[in-house]
Amino acid sequence: MAHDHQAALSPDRRRLSIVLAITAVFFAAELIGGYYANSLALMTDAVHVLTDIAALCLSLLTLWISSRPASGAKTFGYLRAEILGALFNGLLLWVLVVFVWFEAAQRLRDPPAVHSPIMMAVATLGIAINSFSAWMTAGSGHSHAGRTGMAVRSVFVHVVSDLVGSIGVLIAGALTWFTGWREADPLISIVIGCLIVYGSWELVRDGVDILMESVPSHIDLDELRRDLLAVKGTEEVHDLHVWCLTSRQLALSAHAVVAGAADQDRVLGDMAALLEHKFNIRHMTVQLERDNRKRREPEHF
Fold it and tell me: What value does the mean pLDDT take over residues 176-192?
């Protein structure tokens, strides 16, 4: 299990390292451009990009920590370090949004002049860079190794919010340049903040659900129970629990009552095959009980 987890993390590290290098260069360009353009939208987006750099560094660190092998004290290893890092990244975005809204409210009272051409030039560069970074970190869906890890998902949310921010800065610059409407800059900042909160909500929610060991959102527990009951020789399934070890690895524990004449090894094998191929659950503990309630020791897979 540890070897598979490390193999799955290697592509994530490569992608994040490339995005980190590109993001650092763009941060310098946006910070300088925002200063000379006197644009709140551009400066706050630069601060946002700085949080992206911190998020990327944190994600790379948590990927390294989560790949460390298990020990006697930590039998599951450090797999959930990735979840903690992703949750922190999501909350960091919310803190940034509060700062943006506060600054925008101040500027709405007395909108300053901004240098629109610089705003639009830097925003156009940001759209190109963030589009590439979003493509590098997208990877949604399922693969042989499982779903995209939360470390990469958290960075993807940051990058997409950056992309939205760059589009917003471009719109604000265009409105200011063509109409002279100075309020466009802080108003666009408020809209960007709302979109960031909306986009990061799922990331924070999924992180909390994993830490609370909730049933994964894509698992229908009733369907899973019915499928286990459909295994020949199974009469009852109870004490059924499904949770995430990480965003890639699911775990299950259950008690199953089997018919007296049933072959327990076959029942366990059929259940294991069902859980792995249909639900992508490879770490399971199923305790079988005869219909006379005589119990046997748990079987592990």
Answer: 84
